[in-house]
Backbone:
């Protein structure tokens, strides 16, 4: 059985997930240790380690250049302390916009699946 999202597919028959947008590849369920929803500053995506440059959620701040745009995603930490990235946002978003709320809602759904995986494989 598969549960599919735009950026990740969960395959319960083979006990693995496939990241389609982020750290592309197939990974076993049993390797997942932690899952967090984070926002990565758009200008750093793909240029540094995943989610190294984070924008704090719920913090509305402005600079002289305006509010930074970012990608909503999930950071997965494996049992070997590898960092995997899943990007939910297709293009950069801003806080308190419809696109941000839609991406955040999808990220929360994906996180719930990972929480169930973590509970099952870490007991």
Residues:
């Amino acid at each position: 059985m598969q549960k599919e999202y735009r950026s990740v597919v969960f395959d319960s028959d083979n006990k693995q997930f496939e990241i389609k947008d982020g750290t592309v590849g197939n990974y076993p369920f049993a390797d997942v240790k932690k899952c967090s929803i984070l926002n990565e500053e758009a200008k750093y995506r793909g240029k540094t380690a995943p989610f190294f440059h984070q924008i704090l959620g719920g913090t509305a701040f402005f600079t002289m250049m305006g509010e930074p745009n970012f990608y909503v995603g999930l950071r997965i930490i494996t049992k070997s302390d590898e960092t995997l990235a899943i990007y939910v946002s297709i293009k950069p978003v801003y806080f308190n916009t419809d696109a941000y709320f839609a991406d955040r809602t999808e990220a929360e759904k994906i996180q719930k699946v990972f929480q169930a995986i973590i509970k099952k494989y870490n007991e």
The radius of gyration is 15 Å. DSSP finds one helix and seven strands in the chain. The beta strands are 2-4, 8-11, 16-19, 25-28, 32-41, 70-78, 83-87. The first strand starts at residue 2 and ends at 4.
